[in-house]
Amino acid sequence: MIKGAEMIVGTLKNTYAFPILPEQSVDDYKSKIELFLKRAPKGSILIADLFGGTTSNVAAALSKQYDVLAVSGLDMAMLIAATELREEYEGNELIEKLIEKSKENCKNIGKMLREASLRNHDNKN
Fold first, then answer.
1. Nearest CA to 18 among 26, 10, 9?
2. Please, which of 35, 94, 105, 118 could form a disulfide with 89 given CB 3.0 to 4.6 Å?
3. CB-count exposure of residue 45 (10 Å: 0-12, 13-18, 19+)
4. What Rg value do the Cα atoms of the chain yield, rounded?
5. Contact criterion met (CB below 8 Å) for 89 and 71
6. For residues 99-111, b (16+ Cβ closer than 10 Å) or e, as one string?
């Protein structure tokens, strides 16, 4: 996902992925991230994909131990938004802006196309 986002906006600085592997235990996964967090800047963001899944549960646990923020709902738009928003915001305000931006990105494309088609039809008449 990082490489895909970089194709759109260029290099994502200070952005790292921690995929959990099928053969990896939760403790091993958590330890891998902890090693990184020990040298990460305060206020770093842990973005998990699915709320209630292993990655978000680990992010939640680590956010209690380290000065990091945790949010779920990862998709490419959120990843790009996080990179842009962290230049302007921090802390819980950053997370709230990130969630707001992510909600704006969810669209009912079929409905939008139907409405646009109806508007075009009405404008022609």
1. 26
2. 94
3. buried
4. 18
5. no
6. eebbeeeeeeeee
Secondary structure of the chain as H, E, C letters = CHHHHHHHHCCCCCCCCCCCCCCCCHHHHHHHHHHHHCCCCCCEEEEECCCCCHHHHHHHHHHHHCCEEEEECCCHHHHHHHHHHCCCCCHHHHHHHHHHHHHHHCCCHHHHHHHHHHHHHHHHC
Task: In whole angstroms, give the CA distance from residue 67 to residue 77.
Answer: 24
pTM above 0.90, yes or no: no
Please give the Cα distance from 80 to 98 (Å, whole number). Answer: 10
Structural tokens at position 54 = 């292993």
d(CA 86, CA 71): 14
Domain spans in the chain, listed from the N-terminal domain onward: 2-124
CATH topology assigned to domain 2-124: Rossmann fold (3.40.50)
The pLDDT of residue 102 is above 70: yes
**116-122-124 Cα angle (round to 5):** 105
- Pair 59, 70: CB distance under 8 Å: yes
